Amino acid sequence: MMTAQLSYDAKKKSVLFLLAAAVVVWIIVDAATGGDEHWARVGVRLPLLLTGSGDGWPVTGGFILNVLLSIASMAVATALGTIMGIATLAQRAVIRLPAFLVMNFLRNSPWLVLLFAMLYIIPYEIRVFGMVIPFPPFMKAVIGLALPTAANFSEVIRGAVQSIHSGQWEAARSLGYSTRQIYMHVILPQAFRRMIPGWMNLYALLMIATALATVTGIQDVLTILNTSLAMESERALVYFYLTVLFMFFAYCYPIAVFARRLERAVKGDNI
Amino acid sequence: MLDLDYSWLADPAYQSWLVVGVINTLKLAAISSIAATLIGMLGALALTLRIAWLDALIELFVEVFRNTPPLLQMLFAYFTLSTLGLQVTDPDTGLSMPLLSAFACAAISLSLFGGALAIEAFRSGIETMPRAIIEAGQALGYSRWARFWRIEAPIATRISLPALTNILSNLFKTTSQASVITVPELMYYAGQIYNDNFRTMEVMILVLVIYVTLVSILTYLMARLERWMAFPGYGKAAS
User: Fold this and answer.
1) More confident position, A270 or B198
2) Which of B10, B43, B189, B208 has the fewest CB atoms within 10 Å, measured from its CB?
3) A21-268: what fold?
4) Closest to B212 (Cβ–Cβ): which among A12, A108, A242?
5) Chain A residues touching residue B172 (CB < 8 angstroms)
6) How far is C-alpha A82 from the chain's CA centre?
7) pLDDT digits (tens, 9 = 90+) for A88-134
8) Is B84–A204 a contact, with Cβ atoms under 8 angstroms apart?
9) Does residue B54 sit within a domain?
10) How far is A117 from chain B (nearest CA, A)?
11) Residue B117's domain is classified under what CATH number?
């Protein structure tokens, strides 16, 4: 049984390898039969797509801006989501019910619509104590993407905390720990381990959603694809689309694989 | 701070735009949800056959669609299928026009995206099924196919339902991105309305509320379905 299992996986891996090889061969054949001039166009534009400036420096946009946007949004979402997640676990209904309401509203709203709404609801600048805090489109995109991510992250936290066996609660209680101490010393350290795969999956999802930020007008990879490529021939555009699709895939797929591996590792420790 | 003005809602033109938008959104969501569920079931079914090359192909399909932005998939599908794709000649005007409308391209692209997610959901449903049930079926002398149709498939479907609910609500939300390729759904008409009356914030808040309401109804119905389908004494519904 064990050897059959291995050979099946090995077979599958070799087929995947063959598929990858077939793609490479197809690209070479296509390049040899006239595709190379399109690829050359992609090569010329590649620094622009990645960094937003034709020479590759300084970084003003492009795919790197998407990455920065995803990191900034994830930081905000992690902080917000933690607060929201803890609020939905609160004993008091006064805290729990509004938190649930906000969480469900954010979870049920489309990312694109939420992003659009934030674009118009957040003012251009806020005056606090005479200080003017400007809100450029990038900040609005960060907030617009962070809100649904935070709601999803609070669900991850809730799931992780509730997956801790109730015996842990009873044991800690019988040892005289207070609720706060139980969370700090017993539940959260264990739940934290189980949150990480969900958190990483969420990050991959957020990275994919940064493509939507093009509606805020920031110079992300999609904006550049749409604007500066109006001058390329129609055939070449296919190559540009494939290149940008591959950028996202190359960034997100390793994260997804790593998250899945962690998930499997965490599944084992069921106390 | 917020002085919202919704008097424009009384205008029948805006009302009809909103209604048409909601109907088109529902249509797009329904078509792509059904197609995605079918793709998911067929894909997961194909995986149970344990054919290495088929498994590899399906994995490639799932990973590519899961790890790239659906917006980009839609733009690419629209561009390749509509702009470069099949052209037909309009008999009335004699002009050549794309065979597939923006709506069709969005439906195809969303079906594939949702299908890729659904394959994963059904696959993990089949995988997490308790081994004991399969062994009990074997012990009772069920044939391979009878075991699949009478025992494994009904249980796996029920295990996968919560994940499927998530995917379908995700898919419903993603239909709003079809507005980018000019599919006349709710989000598209929202743009039309605020370009006309400049009440951007009011329109966006209204559209957000409409979407949240529709998605909430969908998840509620799926929860009802889950409860209705539940086996007495098996799974979450039992407790």
Assistant:
1) B198
2) B10
3) MetI-like fold (1.10.3720)
4) A108
5) 110
6) 16
7) 988 889 999 999 999 999 999 999 999 988 888 888 777 878 788 88
8) no
9) yes
10) 5
11) 1.10.3720.10
